[in-house]
Each structure stands twice: as C-alpha cells, then as structure tokens.
Amino acid sequence: MDPTKPTDRSSSERTPLLNGEGGSNAGAGAATGRGRHHRPTGGSNLKHFLLNHRYTPGTEHDSIVVRSAAYTWHVAKVTLLSSYVNFLLVMVPVGIIAGILDWNPTAVFTINFFAIIPLAAVLSFATEEIAHKLGDALGGLLNATFGNAVELIVSIAALRDGQIEVVQSSMLGSILSNLLLVMGMCFLFGGLVHRGTNGNGTEQTFSAAVAQTTCSLMALSSASLVLPAALYAVMDQSGSTAKRESILVFSRGTAIILLILYVLYLIFQLRTHSNLFDIESPSNIAADAAGADDETTQTPETEAADNEEESEPVMGPIAALGVLVVVTILVAICADYLVGSIDDIVAATNMSKAFIGLILLPIVGNAAEHVTAVVVAVRNNMDLAMSVAIGSSIQIALGVTPFLVLVGWIMDKDMTLRFETFQTVSFAVSVLVVTYTVQDGKSNYLEGAMLIGLYTIIAVAFYATPGDAMDTVMTLIAGK
User: Fold this and answer.
1) What was the pLDDT predicted at 19?
2) Domain ranges of the chain
3) Cα separations in angstroms, 413 against 151, 167, 241, 478
4) Which N-terminal residues, if any, form the signal peptide (predicted)?
5) CA angle (364 as vertex; 347, 426 as ends), nearest 5
6) Is residue 407 very low, low, confident or very high in pLDDT (cuts 50, 70, 90)?
C-alpha cells in the first residue's frame, strides 16, 4: 500500500503515547499506530475499517469523540487480527458464563481451557508491542516477566485453592513441554525443511555457548528438585518426625537462592554478556548475501522500508498496556473457573491431577510460544527458536517456580520444591537428554523426533497412572 501525505492539519495530528508516534500534538486523535504511514490510497473504507491493521477510518476525524471511538476499534481490531487462534476468543464470555451459572464441571473446564489459549496469544502480542518502544534490554526483561504470565496466573489460582499438586505438576509440565515438545518440534520440522539432499544431508546450527549456558542453569534447577527429594528420603528412613517442616525451610531457602540466580542470569543475558545472545542467524546471513548479489532487486531504500514495516508496532505502549491489563483480568477469571473444576474432573474421569498439570495446563499457557518457535525454526532462525524454548524453561525453573514457593509462604500454603519421585526423575532425565542433544550446537530432524518421543513416553506414563495412586502420593508430599 502506497502512503500519501495528508493535506490538512487534522490528518497529520497523532497521539504519541497511544500510537507510538512522534506527532507534535499530543492531544490529537489516534491514526494508524505508525508514525510515517497515513491513510492508504486504495480499497474501500469498509475494508480498511474491518481488515486493515495499520489504518482505521475515523482516526483522523476532527471530533475527539469520533477519533476516540475509531481508535478504540483500531486497538480491538489489531488485537483480534494478531493471531489465527483468536477465533477461540468467543470461548471467553461463554466460559465465564459457564462458571457463573455453575454448568457441568467438564463443560466449565473444557470451555475455559480453550478460552485461555487465545488469551495467551493476545498477552504475547501486547507484550511484544510494548517491547518495541523499550529497546532490547527492557523489552527482553518485559518478555521474561510476561512470557509465562498465564502459567503464573493459573498456578496462583490453583495455589489459593489448595491444589499444590496441580501447581507443581504444571510448573514441571511447562518446563518439559518447552524442553522436549517445543524444542523437539523445532528440530523436527526445521530439520525436515533444511535436511539437504539424499546422501548429503545438512544440519541446522545455533549458538553452542548459549545452549550450554542455559543447559547448565537447567541442570542447576534439576538439582534443586533432586536434593529435596533426597533429603526427604533420608529423613523418612531415619524416622524423623520433622520431615515436613525441614522440607519447607529447605524449599523456601532454595527458592530465594534460585531467584537471585535468575536475576543474575537476566543481567548476564541483557547487559554484561548480551553479545553472546545476539547472534545473527544463518537465514539472515543468507539473506544479506543474496541482497549483496542482487542490488537491482533490493535497494537500500526499499530494504530499510521493509525492515521498518516489519519492526514497527501497530499500536502504542499505552494502548498495548490497556490490552495487557484487560487480558490479564480475563485470564485470572477463566483460570479461577478452570482450577475450580479440576476436582470434579478427576472424580469423574479418574484422571490424575499430575496428568492435568503436567500435560494439559502447559498447552494452555505455551500455545503461542509453541507456534512461534516452530515457525522461526522452519525459517532457519534456530537461535531465536532455542531462545524461546530453553529461555521459557529457564524462566519457569529459576523464576516462576521459586516465586510460587514464596507466594505459598505468604498464603500459608505448603508449596515446596519436594516433587513426587517419578516427576523428579522425569525432569532430571529430560535435562540430561537435552544437554547431550544441544551441546554440539547442531540439530537435525532425528534429534527432534527423539525429544518428542521422550515427551510422549512421559505423557503416556502419567496418563496410564491411576488418579488415586498418583494423587495420594502428591497429597502426602503436600502435607495434607
């Protein structure tokens, strides 16, 4: 679409904080969400009003009422058009109504389960829009904070409801789904697309230094789960009656240490050693080489315009923050109804809470990240794919899980790092396999199939375990 210059004063006015623009009149109405792109010349106003995520008719009107209404629709429109899964947003009001009217627990769980998936995608979109204006360091910190917001909200709702076993399982499930399922799908689909020719196969590459650093942190988080389990076993064999209190003290102290290490990791990644995490992908290098060979096709001016088109936000930070607040409230409401129906689901299906937390709930929170990681892997940007997969696991292991231990401490809930033995073993084995897989800085579709296979084995094991057997053990661990 070809932009044209505005011919009057009203069409050139913008609201910088709402649109992320540098207009001179801060009180003027919103336009398109872009600083140098104004009304398009082609297409009907109805088409732009409904489908154009860069421009909405009415945002340049003289009346502030019309401008405000048009921009409100503009924000809603670009939010709805931000992801293909947003068609599931219709489930949000239905899920809330189902919870209020106390429908069948299976219906309440299912509807709110599907309602949270698009909300997670919108949350990710709004976070990225805000990060555009904050730069790499603060933007990365914001993504680290809100990247797992859905898991955090669902877990706090479960913790408040006393569902400690669900909280522990969902934290472990988020880590395993990112380490095994997401990374496995990245390796599998990326490896198939970029497999080379028969007899002359190729592998995708990524930063081995970054992978080894993050795997070392995952090994540390694995140790933070193994040690409480070992301490509990030793005290149980000795007949100690203070097992529960000792594990609580140990877990809370360990949680504080892990949070400190997570802060140091953020400083290491975003400030002191950011160069290690800012590595050009093979696809970018190939694109640059192709551009150098064909200067007549891609001029510097058109290349800069394309880069600007891709990187510039479609709405400003204040509008994105408003979306973030609204979506967070909706996630909290849906999560509350979702968690409240878990006990009835377990009683009706004999499905273990460990399976619900380990397999089902991570699908809700990580759906958007799964799609993003696989897409960039297919585009041969494995550094970004690894950052999404392993980086999210680090956030859960070193940030969210220790934080929930402290939140449980505040709520007087006995949330600990003492996980069920099989869960601890599954996590430790998964970290070991992933470490051996990524240590050479190369990947292929066979390694991806192996990781997916291990995740499937773990999922089948938890699915095959009767609910009463697993949940009885988890109840004893929680000290109930």
Assistant:
1) 47
2) 58-280+313-465
3) 18, 12, 20, 9
4) none
5) 75
6) very high
Do 399 and 259 form a contact (C-beta atoms < 8 A)? yes
Q: Mind listing the pLDDT tens digit for each residue in 39-65?
A: 555 555 665 556 555 666 656 666 777
CATH of region 58-280+313-465: 1.20.1420.30
Parallel/antiparallel/unpaired status of strands 200-201 and 204-205: unpaired
Q: Which two tokens stand for residue 105?
A: 């627990």
Is the model's pLDDT at 428 over the cut of 80?
Answer: yes
Strand 442-443 relative to strand 196-197, pairing: unpaired
- Give CA–CA dist 336/342, Å, rounded: 10
Contact 39, 60 (CB under 8 A): yes
Element (H, E) at 443: strand 442-443
What is the separation of C-alpha 376 from the centre of its chain, rounded to a whole number of angstroms? 15
Q: What is the 3-state secondary structure (H, E, C) of 101-168?
A: CCCCHHHHHHHHHHHHHHHHHHHHHHHHHHHCCCHHHHHHHHHHHHCCHHHHHHHHHHHHCCCHHHHH
- The reported pLDDT for the residue numbered 309 is 46
Strands 200-201 and 442-443 turn out to be: unpaired
Identify the burial level of 423 via C-beta atoms within 10 angstroms of its C-beta, where 0-12 means exposed, 13-18 middle and 19 or more buried. buried
DSSP string, 160-213: HTT-HHHHHHHHHHHHHIIIIIIHHHHHHHHHHHT-EETTEE--EE--HHHHHH
Mean pLDDT of the chain: 75
Q: What's the rounded Cα separation, in Å, for the pair 184 and 452?
A: 5
CB count in 10 Å sphere of residue 58? 20
pTM above 0.90, yes or no: no
Q: What are phi and psi of 41, to 5 degrees?
A: -90, -25
DSSP 373-430: HHHHHHTT-HHHHHHHHHHHHHIIIIIIHHHHHHHHHHHT----S---HHHHHHHHHH
